[in-house]
Specification:
two-stranded antiparallel ribbon; 12 helices; receptor; about 5% strand; cell membrane; three-stranded mixed beta sheet; olfaction; Rhopdopsin 7-helix transmembrane proteins; disulfide bond; glycoprotein
Amino acid sequence: MPNFFISDSKDLRVNTVTEFILLSFPCSREIQVLLFVLFFVSYILTLMGNGAIVCAVKLDHRLHTPMYILLANFSFLEICYINTTVPNMLKNFLSETKTISFTACFFQFYFFFSMGITETFLLPLMAFDRYLAICRPLHYPNIMSSHFCMNLVALCWVTAFLCYPVPIYFITQLPFCGPNTIDHFVCDPGPLLALSCIPAPGIELSCSILSSLIIFISLFFILAFYTLVLRAVLRVPSAAGRRKAFSTCGSHLAVVSLFYGSIMVMYISPTSGNAAGIQKIVTLFYSSVTPLINPLIYSLRNNDVKAALRKIHMCTKISQSK
């Protein structure tokens, strides 16, 4: 049963929702258990894969360079990203009520979007790093020092977490008087705005414009940097040099394609225009699948990361044998 309390305002009885029901993936109990096992294994593998990259960069001093500092921060971000949604989704698979409090729902909304925006800021920064390394190799050590790199990373995090407090505040001020069922596994703005007692096209349009600006501006910088990188690589006389440059950039471009391809489906047009099933599948892809795939893309295509992981594995075996 929906949980709400009754309040009086100007002689009108308004039901104010105090919790939401996240339907997640409605199906039989057996399928729910199967989905729990599947996503739990995926969750653990994601933590292990991204955690391994963070440890490799931290423990191997040869990887204490801007490129790998950015990669470690990106992997750490992916760990934080999945923790905003997957644990609650796993809980709901085994729960009968599938409820989330009003406050917890909007906290999840805030952190989920802030992490996503941080990713849209980190990806152009990684492209900028590759641009400097390939197009400005002589100036690269002076421009992109480790200290400057960490300052840019911190700026990405801080700026991203300052983007959505105001829109979320205005959404929390809308009256939610029931129903309180969200046909999703995460507190997403589209389903939330659909539950408001009064239409809020201004807020929905504002969220769509903000998301579109962030996506398009960051994607523009990525494409601009890699256009310059491509021009520089094609001028390299050595075939081996061209292969090395393309290999370095290929992993990042694969991650960019996966991430931006999915979020553009969701957030460039107003969210109410997407069917609930499509919303859930696309959100699941960029919030759970890409964090699982990203470590495989980076580690399998990067010899330095593979060497660092092998070194850590050997050191672990030696310490265990003593």
